[in-house]
Amino acid sequence: MRLLTVPRTSPHLIVVGAGMLGASIAWHLARGGARVTVLERDEGVARGVTHGSYGWVGSSSMLPSEDPARFRRVVDALPAFDQLQVQLGALPMAARGALLWAADEDETLRWHDELRAADQSVELLGQAQVGAVQPGLHAPSAAIWSPRDFAVEPAWLVRQLLKDAAEHGAQVRCSQQVLSLMQRGSRITGVRTTCGDVIADGVVLAAAMDAAVLCAPLGVTLPLRQAPAVLMDFDAPAATLQRLLCAADLEVRPGLQGGLRVAADAPANGEAGLPALVHTTQAAIRALFVQEVPVVARSAAMFNRPTTRDGEPVCGFLPGVDGLYVAVAHPGIILAPQLGQQAAKVLLQR
């Protein structure tokens, strides 16, 4: 007698949050055969933390000895981008390759040696070689060249992921804020939103600090905190810069549609310090180039990055709460493809 295998019904899973991490989880779930509903409180996707993300993908901007665990976490996550590109197609890359140098040559050499000792594919370039990689710079005497690092436009990548997820059956609903979790006994059965209840077999909270708010009524305190940072955009002539630069205290890259994007630490006096920060950053960008480059400030904003107290991502099922998966991590852009893959694997096995 031939035994017939009854196919398992595809689970319906809600992903709360349409940022980079939520989009990655939703995409992996949809590709894996789940019925997926993405709920986003804003009018469009990637409007929150992801909107304030710089988009550097790589490990060379880190000094391995400063935080070995974080460095290894980033290195281990990077191959997932190769897999993502195979399935998703060309990613929205704004720059390929990074040039990095510290305030003095000795510090640059130590940085290079640490990266090489950590098996990173970097080269030490002299002044003339720097000019060949990125023409027009006031090149330092020594710089690190990391050809594998690149920059993505985070919001573009989120839209690309969710578009493909929708083609695999996922629904993306914006302007639909999740107010609370629905629970029967110890099991999560769905969510209550500003547009009504949504029933599901499981819920993924990938909405940064909102995850902590939604978990609080369950008696669960997530170990999250906010770390402020600044993102600035400048208008500049086309092709002013083709690479990622980490030049002493300045991190700058080209935008996919022109201009320059800069990531910086938040000023000590908060938003009141933004005008002065923009002014000094504008001067620092101009000082990079041999020829005078017209650089005009376009925007500057502070964003709160969700991090954890110990630096480790919070990704997994909540103990004692059946059907609730939480995903919060920093750096979210770098870790998202790997964490999305891991989340989908365990969610689809349940």
Keywords, please?
18 strands, six-stranded mixed sheet, elongated, 350 residues, 9 helices, nine-stranded mixed sheet, alpha/beta
Q: Can you walk through the features of this model?
A:
The chain has about 350 residues and is an alpha/beta fold. About 30% of the residues lie in helices and about 30% in strands. It has helices at about 20-30, 70-75, 80-90, 105-115, 125-135, 155-165, 210-215, 275-285, 330-350; strands at about 10-15, 35-40, 55, 95-100, 125, 140-150, 170-175, 180-185, 185-195, 195-200, 200-205, 225-235, 245, 250-255, 260-265, 295-310, 315, 325-330. The strands form three sheets. Strands 3, 4, 5, 6, 12, 13, 14, 15 and 16 form a nine-stranded mixed sheet that branches. A hairpin with a 5-residue loop joins strand 14 (about 250-255) and strand 15. The longest helix is centred in the C-terminal third of the chain and has 18 residues, at about 330-350. It is elongated and about 65 Å long. The model is unreliable at about 1-10 (pLDDT under 50).
Mean pLDDT: 95
pLDDT < 50 runs, ≥5 residues: 1-8
Oligomer: single chain
Number of strands: 18
Number of helices: 9
State the end-to-end distance: 30 Å
Inertia-based shape: elongated
Order of helices and strands: EHEEHHEHEHEHEEEEEHEEEEHEEEH
- Structure classification: alpha/beta
Biggest sheet, in brief? 9 strands, mixed
Strand content: 25-35%
Helical fraction equals: 25-40%
* Radius of gyration over all CA atoms, rounded: 22 Å
